Every structure is written in structure tokens, then in C-alpha cells.
């Protein structure tokens, strides 16, 4: 309960201070939009780092050296918890935006931060809106802004229950000509979802797999990029169980 209260207090204070930060960032953006983006990323990753600390999560990170340094990438991961985003954002290279469901746009302040982070909002009920989001992701990737997506579409109930990936969401990597980096989360749900609404400390493993360079795949493999990433993540999840 104490962890939940501390996180609640921090979020309230951060959201209040955010109103002043937004004014400052707007001024910075008039003179240097790139600096505004980097500052936004730094502020948000700091705040998420505080949340990770307050949650008591003990995170083991593997394969971070696999993240290419000279290009934006499409991060593709399994999805077990809200803390996938909290922890994942503190580990990726700037700049990077997550793909989220459109309902989050209704959340004041939070959605404002997400827009500043170049996050994308997916409307699962509208095919045209989904295609538009993919095109926005392609544009971000071409402009050096990485994209982080969970192609299962919803949170899994266990680490083993890795659902089939939606292939369409990975097309943005092919169109933007950037690599796909598989990311495997183990045990993130033990922080919050397994005992909702309480937050408890837990050991978590995050592994970044070797990048998949789409141009090096054969014609048949290019049709199933999601399946390749899915199988790689499933293998990493299974291999990392002994670290928990």
C-alpha cells in the first residue's frame, strides 16, 4: 500500500508541475524544436525512472548493446503490464514514441506528454485510422524517431501466453527501411497486475534481441516479419525464466 501511495503522490505532483513545464517547453520549441524533443524525452524518462524506483522493481537488462546506434528502430515486444512501458522507456535510446490505444488521448496531461514524445494512438475499430497511424509511424522512423509497439494488441495473462502478432503494425519498419528490435519482458505483471490494485517489488528481466534487418530477409520471410519477431521474443522469455 505504501508504494501505491508514494507513486500516487509523485504522479499528482508531477502532473501539477507539468503545467509549468509545458509553458517552458513551448518557449524552447519556438527557437529549437529538436531541443524541445530531447528535453521532453529526458523529463519523461526521469519521471518513469522515479516510478520504477518507487515500485521496487529490480530490473535485469540483457542485450542492450543490440540496439543500433546509427538509426531509428521499431521496437517490438510482448505485453504483460503497464510497467512494460515504465521500464522500457528508461532503457531505449532517444528519441522514441510508444504506440498506445486511442482512449489514452482522453487522459489530460498524460496525453499531452505522449504527444510531445511522438507517441502514436491506434484506433482498433477504424481501419483507415489504423493505416494513417502506420504512415505517421513511418514518417517518425524516417525522421530518426524510434517507435515502440506491442503487436499482440492487448496484455497477455501470463509470460507464456504470447499471442500472435498483428503483421500490419510491423509494416512501418519495412516502409521506413529500419531494423526491427525484438524486446522480451519477463515478470512485469508481478509489480502490479497480479495483485491489483497493490504495487509490490518484483524481479524483472528485459532482453533486447538482435535486430532484424528486413532487407536481408528473403521474399517469404518479409511476409511474416511479425512471426519472426514473435518467435524470437518467445525464445527469450523462455530462456530468461531461470533469472527470476
Structural class: alpha/beta
Order of adjacent strands in the largest pleated sheet:
1-7-6-2-5-3-4
Low-confidence stretches: none
Terminal-residue CA separation: 23 Å
Helices and strands, in order, run as: HHEEHEHEHEHEEHH
Largest sheet: 7 strands, mixed
Total number of beta strands: 7
Q: Give the amount of beta strand, in percent.
A: 5-15%
Helix content: 40-55%
Architecture overview:
By secondary structure, the protein is of the alpha/beta class. The protein has helices at 2-31, 33-55, 83-89, 110-116, 127-142, 171-176, 219-222, 225-239, and strands at 58-62, 74-77, 96-101, 120-122, 146-149, 180-186, 203-208. Strands 1-7-6-2-5-3-4 form a seven-stranded mixed beta sheet, with helices on both faces. Strand 3, helix 4 and strand 4 form a beta-alpha-beta unit. Helix 2 (33-55) packs across helix 3. The longest helix has 30 residues, at 2-31. The two termini are 23 Å apart. The mean pLDDT is 92.
Amino acid at each position: 500500500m505504501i508504494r501505491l501511495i508514494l507513486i500516487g503522490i509523485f504522479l499528482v505532483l508531477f502532473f501539477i508541475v507539468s503545467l509549468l513545464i509545458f509553458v517552458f517547453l513551448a518557449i524552447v520549441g519556438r527557437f529549437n524544436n529538436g531541443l524541445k524533443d530531447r528535453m521532453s524525452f529526458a523529463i519523461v524518462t526521469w519521471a518513469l525512472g522515479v516510478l520504477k524506483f518507487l515500485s521496487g522493481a529490480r530490473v535485469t537488462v540483457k542485450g542492450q548493446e543490440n540496439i543500433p546506434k546509427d538509426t531509428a528502430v521499431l521496437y517490438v515486444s510482448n505485453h504483460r503490464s503497464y510497467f512494460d512501458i515504465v521500464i522500457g522507456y528508461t532503457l531505449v535510446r532517444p528519441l522514441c514514441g510508444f504506440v498506445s490505444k486511442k482512449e489514452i488521448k482522453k487522459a489530460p496531461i498524460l496525453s499531452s506528454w505522449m504527444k510531445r514524445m511522438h507517441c502514436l494512438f491506434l484506433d482498433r475499430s477504424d481501419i483507415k485510422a489504423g493505416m494513417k497511424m502506420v504512415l505517421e509511424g513511418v514518417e517518425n522512423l524516417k525522421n530518426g524517431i524510434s517507435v515502440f509497439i506491442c503487436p499482440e494488441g492487448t496484455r497477455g495473462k501470463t509470460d507464456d501466453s504470447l499471442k500472435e502478432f498483428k503483421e500490419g503494425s510491423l509494416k512501418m519498419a519495412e516502409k521506413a527501411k529500419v531494423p526491427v528490435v525484438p524486446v522480451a519482458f519477463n515478470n512485469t505483471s508481478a509489480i502490479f497486475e497480479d495483485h491489483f490494485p497493490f504495487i509490490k517489488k518484483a524481479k524483472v528481466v528485459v532482453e533486447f534481441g538482435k535486430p532484424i534487418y528486413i532487407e536481408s530477409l528473403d521474399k517469404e520471410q518479409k511476409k511474416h516479419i511479425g512471426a519472426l519477431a514473435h518467435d524470437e521474443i518467445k525464445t527469450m522469455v523462455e530462456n530468461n525464466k531461470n533469472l527470476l
